Amino acid sequence: MKVDFHIHSNFSDGQYSPEKLVDMAIDAGLGIISITDHDNVLSYNVAKKYIEDTNKDLTLVQGIEVNTMYKDEEIHILGYMPNVENSEFKNLLKVQQEARIEQAKEIIDLLAKREKIYVKFEDLQALVAEGGSIGRPHIAKAITSAGGTKSVVEAYDKYINDNSPVYVKRKTVSPHDAVEIIYDAGGVPVIAHPYNLTNSQELIKQLMQYGLRGIEAYHRRHTPAIVEYFSTMAEEFGLIVTGGSDFHSPNISTGQIVLGKNFVPEWTYEKLLDEKKRLDMAQ
After folding, report:
1. At what angle do helices 224-237 and 200-208 cross, to 10 degrees?
2. How far apart are CA 234 and CA 228, in angstroms?
3. Helix 87-110 vs helix 175-184: angle between axes, to the nearest 10 degrees?
């Protein structure tokens, strides 16, 4: 059975609705998925209801991807099967959403003052599902729609990067806090796509002290050698292995849909369930 534990919907920076993703996953031959939107869990109930109402043959795992910062580096933490009603977890989402809104409004203000590019906050809200997480992709699209650039890629290059005079970094939690909150909420914290992190091994060791329980070794950007490297590290540290496509939208140039295309072993689901049971028994 094919699995994919890293997918994004229009409740964050993905193109498609949770319902559409369910249909796409089934068409791709997937049997188990997790929609892991940035700082948002609203897609789960939407997808779950659609699966139940239409009697779809697909297993859905509650998931999230929390955006964090550590030493000026963005670190993403995946969380699986947390208690979303946990007070600290709910507060984490509240803080993250407020930070996203504040960042977006500050960038909009700077775009108007310094670049004479006029974007309304409502323009950004219209690009995500109600209650969804606003992020860089939405700002880039809004800039392009307002005539500020000819393409989203150009918007990123000129305005949506750390070196741009109109870009404002988001105030966000540390990966240590995100891991601990997910863990305390009964979830399984996993470090996402570690291939691009500086000194990932040292960070993983640190995060284990806060409750990190897995490494996303399988990822569409991970070569076989990288998969082997992080799988070996997980085994050495006593962590589980997960993986997914990190699907947002079709490739701009080729139109290729990577949902479910990269190999993720079915046994990763069993290990994830076992880890969740172990955490439930320990708490």
Report:
1. 30
2. 10
3. 150
pTM of the model: 0.96
Q: What are the pLDDT digits (tens) for 186-245? A: 999 999 999 989 899 999 999 999 999 999 999 999 999 999 999 999 999 999 999 999
pLDDT digits (tens, 9 = 90+) for 179-198: 999 999 999 999 999 998 98
**What topology is assigned to 2-92+171-282 in CATH?**
TIM Barrel (3.20.20)
Instruction: Give the list of residues 6+ apart from residue 40 with CB closer than 8 angstroms, or none.
Output: 11, 12, 64, 93, 97, 131, 132, 133
Residues 6+ apart with CB under 8 A from 116: none
**Which residue in this structure is represented by tokens 């409502």?**
122
Residues 172 and 99: beta-carbon distance below 8 Å: yes
Q: What is the residue extent of each domain of the chain?
A: 2-92+171-282, 93-158
